[in-house]
């Protein structure tokens, strides 16, 4: 009983035990950042299991993980989802763009379509660079999110 040790009557609504899958590491973030430098606390929390090959010259893994955790909190990711598949029109556009004259490259304008209703992490537009999906961002950094958890303090489970 917590009353005897802490002097408070605490009711715990839910609890999770997280284990890193083989070859992956766990990273976490909280928002807003409260607490001590060594203890992250906030209303929102995310924990990701990230798998990444060690190679010299790569973007630091802890910063990459912090960005993905921030994305999970901010974009309200609910599931991992499958990687996005390019549509036939996107493949045709990519092929035709390669065949265009290089002098006309400055005219090529891409619009970024952000589906704010998308809840699958890998298919969401990356919060810090909406011109690419989270999957494309991770792939570019030779990383893979194996699983993740997002939780909100006081939310009904």
TrEMBL record:
UniProt cross-references to InterPro entries, sorted A to Z: EF-Ts_dimer_sf, Transl_elong_EFTs/EF1B, Transl_elong_EFTs/EF1B_dimer
Domain Translation elongation factor EFTs/EF1B dimerisation, chain residue ranges per copy: 3-154
The UniProt record lists the keyword Protein biosynthesis: yes
Region (Disordered): 76-104
GO BP term (any one): mitochondrial translational elongation
Pfam families to which the protein is assigned, alphabetical: EF_TS
Stretches that traverse the bilayer: none
GO MF entries: translation elongation factor activity
Bias (Basic and acidic residues): 85-98
Keyword terms of this UniProt record: Elongation factor, Protein biosynthesis
A GO cellular component entry from the record: mitochondrion
Record-given protein name: Translation elongation factor EFTs/EF1B dimerisation domain-containing protein
Species whose genome carries this gene: Strongylus vulgaris
């Amino acid at each position: 009983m917590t009353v005897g040790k802490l002097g408070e009557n605490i009711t715990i609504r839910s609890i999770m035990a997280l284990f890193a899958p083989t070859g992956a590491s766990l990273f976490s973030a909280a928002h807003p950042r409260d607490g001590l430098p060594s203890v992250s606390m906030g209303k929102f929390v995310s924990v990701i299991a990230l798998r990444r090959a060690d190679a010299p010259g790569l973007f630091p893994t802890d910063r990459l993980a912090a960005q993905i955790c921030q994305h999970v909190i901010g974009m309200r990711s609910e599931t991992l989802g499958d990687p996005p598949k390019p549509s036939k029109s996107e493949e045709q556009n990519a092929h035709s763009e390669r065949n265009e004259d290089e002098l006309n490259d400055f005219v090529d304008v891409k619009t970024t379509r952000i589906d704010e209703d998308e809840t699958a992490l890998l298919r969401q537009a990356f919060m810090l660079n909406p011109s690419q999906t989270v999957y494309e961002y991770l792939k570019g950094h030779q990383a893979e999110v194996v699983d993740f958890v997002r939780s909100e303090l006081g939310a009904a489970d």
